[in-house]
Amino acid sequence: AGSRALQFPRGGGLPPLAFCERQGPWQTMTDADPAATKPAEQAIVFHVEVASATGLPRPERTFVRLSGLGLQEDMNSEHQVEESAEPASWLFLSPEAIAEAARLKAEAEAAAASKKKPPAQQEESRPTSVEPPTAVCRISRPCGTPAERQKLLDNVCSPFRVTLFRAGETPVPLAQASLDLSGLIHDTASVELDVELRWSEELIAELRTQFEEEAAAAAEAAAAAKAEAEAAAAAAAEAGEAAEDAEGSAAGDGEGAEEEGPPPSFVEPPPGRLVLKASTAGPIGRALCPQDLHDWAVLSVRLDGVYHLPQKLLEAGGPLPEPGTAEGPVESYPLKYSVRLLGCEFDGGRLVLPHVELPPADEGGGAEVAAEGGAEGAEAGAESEEPATPSPDPDPSFDIGSEEFVEGLTRAGFAAAKEDGPAVFDFLGRPRTGLGGRIGPQDFARLAELGVPAEPKTLLELYTLLIEKHENLETAFGALDASAEGVISRESFSAGLEEAGFSGTPEESEALFNALDSRRSGAVGREDFRIIGTTKRLQDLETAAKAAKWLLASTGSASALLKQVDEQKTGQVTKEAFLATAERLGYPDVAGVELAYSYMCLLEPESVDSIGHATFESLSTLDAATAAAAALPRLEDLLLGSDGGADGEGAGEAALKKLLDQPLDFEAGSSLGCLDFVARIKQLDTAGTLGVPAQLLFFLLDMNGTGKLGMPEFSGLPAFNAAARWKRLAAVRVFVESGFGSIDTDAFKKLFDDRSDYFTEAEESLPRVEWNRTEVHGYRGREWLQRLLNTLGDERGRNRSTEPVSTAGGAWLYLFPMIEGAPADFKDIADGAQAALGKLSRWHHAQAFIDLRRLAAPASADGTGPEVEFRAFLAQVGLQPTGANDAGDLDAAPYGTCQTYIKGCLRLDRPLLRLCPRDVRPPMQPSGETYIPPPPEKPPPPTVNEELEKEASKVVGRLAFEFARMCNERGFDETKIVGPGGQVGPSAILGRKDVKRHMFLDWLEQQLEGIALRDLGGELRPAIVRLVRSENKDGPACGLGGNENDAAYTHLRDYILKHLFRALNRDVEKHRRMRDEALWRSPPLVGPANAQDPDVGDSEEKKQQQDSMLIRLAFEYELLGDIDRARELYEERLAMEQNVENGEAWYGYARFLMRCGQNQTAAERVLRYAISLRPEDDGPSLKEAAFLACLLQNHRLPCSLDAEGVRSARFDAAVALMEGFADRHPDEQMPLYFLFLIHSIEAWGLQAEISAAKEAGGDEESVEELVYQCERLSAEAAKYLELARTPAETFKGSLNPAGPFGRPSFPELEDLVQKEQINRGEAIEVPATKPETPAAWQPPARAAFPDPQTMRRPPETEDAIALDCIDLLLHCGLPDLVRFLVHEAVQIYGFLSPVTAASERCKIQLIKAAMMCKDWNEAESLVADLFNFRGGDRVPEAHALLGEVR
């Protein structure tokens, strides 16, 4: 998959754009060194040409320096020879020439250092000439691994800088230009940019100096000229010139002096311009990330600084200078700071002192007097002045709502604010009424009422104490419940603990009681007491998971571990063998290994000594152990309902009853084992809401390790979940108290009030952490955008996330100080002072929550992307190593709460849009009409006449039933002869003997005193009333009067009787036909009971039989080659009432039309009708949409859209069909494969047009337009192919991956914690080498029979869905598309891997496609090719197809 991802997508036979160059040759010799046979590096090559620079203030002799694109060292051009104000075309050496020059220089320096000539063989190895420089700078960047590809894309999105230098011994920077090359990713293969050239400070300073020198020289010259003029005037006056002329001259000189303006000021020259050309062999995104086409953005993260640092961090390198006495970076400060945010990395942050203006010194008395008397004055002032009483801050009287409460906790850095904040708010706001769900400072103070429960470690110590004293928890509860009330009060609990030997403080005893009081009722029940057992079982599960994880990692997989355990391949795994294997591999925790084995044994409760291989595979499910506790509330909802239902023992009874699905046996004690539990959970949890294997939950609930769960175990489930909820709520209290010291008004204000003054002071006058590189740019593709939209809960991402906290609306930032050059774990630092500094830095690893919801803002008018400016408060991370604060000299909450914060900005370069496919529209015809016709009109509702006849038919049926009952009661029945020789049928004939006129009516009147007859009339009455009111407006309002006036309504009686007789005659005719039909049916075929039964002809069963018969007959005629008769039968089937609007039946008919005769126009019409039957909100099924879309792209045959004369009409309709389905079903991969097929087929067709146009000498502009469209379609095809290959789970995550216990997860922190645990003996390092496979599991050197796997050629599993698409095309009768996918699509796009393309399944598909095209020679040739491969003649299906071909 990786190699195929690097192929450039080409439309319809375009030549490959091989810009993923191989750096160095491939070695193919089998006897070469394994280390030397690895493939050479893959790279993208950029060609950069700095064309020209204009607008230089003066001619310069220059060179340029290129920086960016991830270059480790900047690249310099050759120095230009001549000076120019508009330099152009700088020359660059090739990378090979630069490397060679560096090698020669190094050898020369080495030779000079050793004062001897280089060896002769080295001289011979040098090239005789170096490639001359060119105007194009060639920059090669590696892209062989995912990390290298991401880094390359990030670098392309970062500014590419060109710096113009003055050439000389000491180069001087003259100007710099910043260029955006991100267009090379997906948009184009070459860019020509004309950007602004900004002059450097050095050049501006030179120009200013030059201007000032010139201005001074001009002023000096003007002064000299003026002096000369004055001297000349004086000399002329002395020589006796006219006084008048002298005075006029003097006056003129004076006026000129007065008119002299201010000296000229320096004006910076306008910015210059720089032209740069950059290109690659093709848009690099089409090779590196084709799935991101149209779905990508540039993320820019700017960090301004970290402010209000804790005092211990500030003084890590000693006391800081007094404010105002120093500024800038503190060089002696020993720590560097790093930040990780949304994949952007900031390293090397330094402590910086701000510029602070000191107040001016007091005037008067002179400096000496001030110096002498300053100290005395200050001392006297201190003695005379009383300390000023600070004015108290006004009490905040504002109220906050739930959202403000949660947002304040989130801003302060409380990790679980989004999940637990609303519940805490509800707890605080309960006593208040009439305030619209808001709380104030007094309500906030109620946070202290949340009792803080004991930590699991303390509960486990209590478990050990109680087991040692009482053997089990049930006995321990009875001992603590001295009064036998069934509950333990707070006082009884404390007294019982003291009696049991508990040595803790009263506060610890209170915390233990809080941990068990799940209802906060002041009493602990028996089910609450089981929380201790569940906590112990949770620790056992973690211990077992830890052992399993290590064992699996040390061997590589569960199957590899199994081979080590069952060395002799006996098929069974014993406990002794499992323990011995763990010891041999080096895992020391025997208890953890035993727990892991007992976990597996749950699936084989009857087995005593060993377990099977299938059961052993369950060891890998322990990987989900960290999520087991979080799944218990979901298990409670599943068994007891979301409202909780019963509690205590009642909850246990309800849960067990639901699992057993039968009444409980209280005397015998109902219970169930693990296998039954797992099976029942699978039935109940069809949606998979638990998210963890049921075996893990069984292990947790089985507190006594009996392998059975009964009512006691289930009764503790609600209590454990309730206690966990109270613990999470109490964590808010701990967070606030540790940060502020108390829960008071000041804490409320700092959490929820405006902090602008606080921010201003910190950012203007306090030390902060700053980074040299303040802004980082990164490429973010479709996967990241999907995760962002999942995090925001934005519908533009189609809400694909499955993570419970994915819509938190933000992401977590990770900040960590460290000692530069020192080990990450302070335990590895030998120097004591440095180790203490390492502890300090590790203790201050911090996290902060960044709210990203403003990124979802709608697009602005100018099209710029959204921006989020943030100030996020830091809080200590939850994972700290053992021994980090053993001395207790570090603050419990080092960053306090709402104290230290980080300031910055996030920005996207474009608005967030709906991920592709976007702008989904229904398929249209070129005329503007919808391509899918409207659904058929529903039949009109029955008229009143039809309703009356229908009711009359029902009454006739009732009368027939009553008549049969009368005949049966009075013996009016006779036998029925159904066959030769007087064969008698099982049913009798009624009403042909002894029945007289009016007998039936008299019998009806006698039944139930005439009630039955009146009921029959009552059934007709509503229909008759509706008929009279509808058809005869002047009819009687409420019945007849029984007098001569009734004669006026005689016509109504006749009208009613007419419809009654019509209904009766219809039924009589219907049953006559059915009787006649029954006479001609063969009883041996249909059964004697069915042969003469007229009622069976109108049943649903009969209709289904008729439908099945028509399907069978149509298929048989198709096999016989009588296609016309098969078509008639299909049409007869579709005319049946149940199939007129049966989309599945019409879809089958469309398949028949394409399969037999390739009647594409008719198949298209049928499919359009079938889709129109679907509800508009649901749309077509996948097979319907894919069939019609691919049919439209089958250009060999015509379709209805050809009449419009618009070539793209078929493509547009096909794309709209599949995009609509993909939009409604975003998690399905198969529609993406069909979108690939549609685009690639269209690109292939355009390529044929391009070739024809070139051969015909067509217009170049038109050809270029076709080429552009072809490349665009090819890129779209590659996009959808890559998306189809990507697992759906990739797009279901968020930007907040959860670590253990729901904490934010940071990869670097997780790696550090793992290393710290290994250093402290808390975890065992996994050995680097895997053990050898035992001999019993090794394949024999010479097998007696060939392995079936070596004889067959199965396809690769990653191509399974692609092969299913090909099967569906065969199913729909589209062989041309099958050939395209297996041949052209494989060659151009890598649609299938080479292994799959050569597999037996793929060959069989090609044979079927050839047969469908009736190309029998090709089909026979393909079968022969298949048989030529080893094992190919063992494919039974190939022999069957060969028989059909011949």
Which helices and strands occur, and which strands form pairs?
Layout: H1 2-5, E1 20-23, E2 41-54, E3 62-67, E4 75-76, H2 95-114, H3 120-125, E5 137-142, H4 146-157, E6 160-166, E7 172-179, H5 183-186, E8 190-199, H6 201-238, H7 243-259, E9 272-279, H8 285-288, E10 297-307, H9 311-314, E11 328-329, E12 335-341, E13 344-353, H10 366-384, H11 402-412, H12 417-429, H13 441-444, H14 456-470, H15 473-480, E14 487-489, H16 490-500, H17 506-516, E15 523-525, H18 526-555, H19 558-565, E16 572-574, H20 575-585, H21 590-601, E17 610-612, H22 613-616, H23 628-640, H24 649-660, H25 674-684, H26 694-701, H27 711-740, H28 745-752, H29 756-765, E18 768-770, E19 775-780, H30 782-792, E20 810-819, H31 832-843, E21 846-851, E22 867-873, E23 875-876, E24 901-908, H32 944-970, E25 973-974, E26 977-979, E27 983-984, E28 989-990, H33 999-1006, H34 1011-1031, H35 1050-1080, H36 1083-1086, H37 1088-1091, H38 1100-1120, H39 1123-1134, H40 1143-1155, H41 1160-1172, H42 1182-1192, H43 1209-1224, H44 1230-1255, H45 1260-1285, H46 1307-1319, H47 1348-1351, H48 1360-1371, H49 1375-1382, H50 1384-1389, H51 1394-1397, H52 1400-1412, ...
Antiparallel strand pairs: 1-2, 2-5, 2-9, 3-4, 3-6, 6-7, 7-8, 8-9, 10-18, 10-19, 10-24, 11-13, 12-13, 12-20, 13-18, 14-15, 16-17, 20-21, 21-23, 22-24, 25-28, 26-27
Helix pairs in contact: 6-7, 11-12, 12-27, 14-15, 14-18, 16-17, 18-19, 18-21, 18-26, 18-27, 20-21, 24-27, 25-26, 32-34, 32-35, 38-39, 39-40, 40-41, 41-42, 42-43, 42-44, 43-44, 44-45, 48-49, 48-52, 49-52, 52-53, 52-54, 53-54
